[in-house]
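Problem: given the chain below (523 residues), write out its structure.
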Amino acid sequence: MSYTALYRKFRPVSFKDVKGQDHIITTLQNQIKADRIGHAYLFCGTRGTGKTTVAKIFAKAVNCQNPVDGSPCGECEMCRAIAAGTSMNVIEIDAASNNGVDNIREIREEVAYRPTEGKYKVYIIDEVHMLSIGAFNALLKTLEEPPEYVIFILATTEVHKIPITILSRCQHYDFKRISIETISGRLKELMDAEQVEVEDKAIRYVAKAGDGSMRDALSLLDQCIAFYLGQRLTYDHVLEVLGAVDTDVFSQLLRSIIKRDVPKVLDIVEELVMQGRELTQLTTDITWYLRNLLLVKTSDNIEDVLDVSTENMMQLKEESGMIETDMLLRYIRIFSELSGQLKYASQKRVLLEVALIKLCTPAMETRDDTLLDRIRAVEERLENTDFAAIQERAVHIASEEDSGGKKVQVKPQLPSAVPEDVQEVVKNFRPIADGASGLLKTYLKKARLSLGGENRLMIVMPEAMEAELVGSEEHRRELEELIENRIGKRVEVEVRHVEEGRRFEDTFVDIEKKINMEITVED
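Solution.
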């Protein structure tokens, strides 16, 4: 016999097997026991919450020859025929593929005939919102005054698409999303029945990934079991099969974003991509992680609301003290926007990396909710700035009034003494530059030399682009190694450029001229 999927194999056959919809089950059982059965029902709710299943159980219960406390016995001839799908009393219609006026007219003609066996003919119309306007209109009269032996059960995931004229003729039941605890309990129960060993943490993750749908959770669990057939299913196995990410990675990512460490953030993304993680799912999970963090940040005694372990709760509380509420709201907005973009994107990684760089660099955004974070980034930069070092190496261009009231510009002052190591480099700089690699050698021909601090050589380029190239980590390291090989000492190199509209002499001291031409500095 071929394999049967878990969600089909363990589909509830009586009301007591239905999980998470007690408010509906109790009402339907009471109606059956009191013989107060309605003629039209509308079952609404997200996928996998039990709408069609409850409709079939209800169809069995109203036709059951020996009902037990409002539930079908499952043993009588009618129950077995309905369960096998051979009963003429229960007619299932898929409105997605039978949505025309002619299909509804056929129903109107059929309802004129009494059931051949049992008490009721039950029409279960699934995805009823897919019916055309004409089909809805054709259904109206029959739905309002059907024969006493006919029951209509309409099921839909999109109740807002159903005309009000149809809604007003039905008893309306909303199927809730099933809680993680309820799904976890059911999955554990079924795994015990299947004799499959599954880690509790793995079951909880699958239940969470089901997003309130029992059917989705069972399908995901089926997929994970198939991948690790015959083995104990662990939490890590589930993450691997579903392409998901452990919450510890979200914590690392968040802490790197808070530090505005772009290289570290991109390294984490690279690692996740190489592991084959699904970026759309990753974005959704990060958004939920930030949502949990926001709840911890803004609420007291939130432990009972959040479905996280004690260790994760401690981690969330620690991180809530590291981030401000406005930053969290901005992060959630950016990731929510990203979730919508990723659905149809061909370059998902690029979009994710851009979003993460935005988080690390508030200046990239001009929206109002970014303002506080931009100010905060400036404050952090100021706090981490060594003003003493800046003052030491900066050239002060001041303006003083002369006796006539005119402004005169004070030239940068020559240092009274240049460190010996720097003097040695300046004397040998041109031969040192000639030993550099191709492009660096070309640019160094335009370089001017100045003093960058106690023992630091400042190389000044005419243009910002040239300074950026010479000042790259690779070229700076090459230049420092050339200097060390030439004079036998290590001298730190700093690269700057002449600001637009200024001359070199207005901003920098030309120590090459001072040393080589022996300029005398007056006291």
